[in-house]
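Translate structure to sequence.
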């Protein structure tokens, strides 16, 4: 059974197939889409807050003709509060549905519980580990915006230590050719050493930047992220935010063809004055999440992923 827990499961060929399928679904009529997953029931279990990921997954199911049962804030409002294990949750919920989409606060607990699920499980983000479907939609966005996935310079800014979207994106970039990554982060929020080593050993060129201007200059993609304040203790979040935020004046050093991405929500890391600029792709990126998750659900439930 195929569970989606890490981008390591997706080679570039599979990722391209998903992106091309997302494009097909995007162009289909609503009436035709509604036949894709008719009769299927999906559970969305969110133990941590979510807006885009939860709603885009649920919208994807409904757009494809399926139905959703949902548990929001499951850490507080489900039997998890009583001490029920995640393995037991999967045993029970798996008897009701065709697939489970879950966001959980512990990557380790999720990994340990997944073998007990009798239906496919899709990670919608796990602690400070990975967020595989975000990396898929990020790749889809880069491809749609720039028309290629090779020979890219990607600046990654913000919370690189706890940012699970960063961890998944960097692992996805290792599958591409001639990739250069520029890292810029607040003090104390550097990329975990083991992940930097993994990315470097895969052939990605890594550059550490001292200023935001250095990070933006000659970049094809700028991937900005927020500080994961819910996972931090003792960091002055306000100071950290001003240290790496992108302001309108920074656009003068950013190439005209470049694109700014952000997994959202943003909390001061991108000046709203940048939004009208064609290089600001983060809201298009969020929309792309709907179609990539539609493609993933469609192929997964039809047994086309393995």
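Result:
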């Amino acid at each position: 059974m195929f569970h989606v827990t890490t981008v390591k499961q997706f080679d570039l060929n599979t990722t391209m197939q998903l992106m091309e399928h997302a494009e097909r679904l995007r162009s289909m009529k609503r009436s035709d889409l509604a036949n894709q997953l008719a009769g299927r029931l999906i559970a969305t279990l969110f133990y941590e807050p979510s807006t885009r990921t939860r709603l885009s997954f649920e919208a994807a199911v409904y757009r494809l003709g399926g139905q959703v049962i949902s548990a929001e804030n499951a850490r507080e409002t489900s039997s998890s509060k009583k001490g029920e294990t995640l393995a037991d949750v999967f045993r029970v919920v798996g008897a009701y549905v065709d697939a489970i989409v879950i966001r959980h606060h512990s990557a380790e607990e999720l990994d340990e519980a997944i073998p007990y699920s009798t239906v496919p499980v899709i990670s919608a983000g796990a602690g400070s580990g990975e967020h595989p479907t975000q990396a898929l939609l990020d790749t889809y966005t880069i491809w749609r915006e720039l028309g290629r996935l090779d020979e890219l310079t990607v600046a990654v800014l913000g919370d690189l230590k706890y940012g699970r979207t960063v961890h998944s994106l960097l692992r996805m970039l290792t599958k591409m050719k001639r990739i250069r990554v520029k890292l810029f982060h607040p003090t104390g929020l550097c990329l975990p050493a083991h992940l930097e080593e993994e990315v470097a050993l895969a052939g990605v060129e890594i550059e550490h930047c001292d200023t935001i201007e250095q990070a933006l200059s000659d970049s094809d993609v700028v991937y900005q992220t927020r500080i994961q304040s819910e996972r931090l203790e003792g960091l002055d979040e306000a100071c950290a935010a001003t240290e790496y935020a992108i302001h309108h004046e920074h656009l003068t050093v950013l190439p005209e063809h470049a694109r700014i991405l952000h997994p959202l929500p943003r909390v001061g890391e991108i000046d709203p004055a940048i939004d009208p600029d064609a290089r600001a792709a983060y809201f298009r990126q969020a929309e792309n999440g709907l179609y990539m998750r539609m493609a993933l659900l469609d192929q997964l439930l039809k047994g086309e992923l393995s």
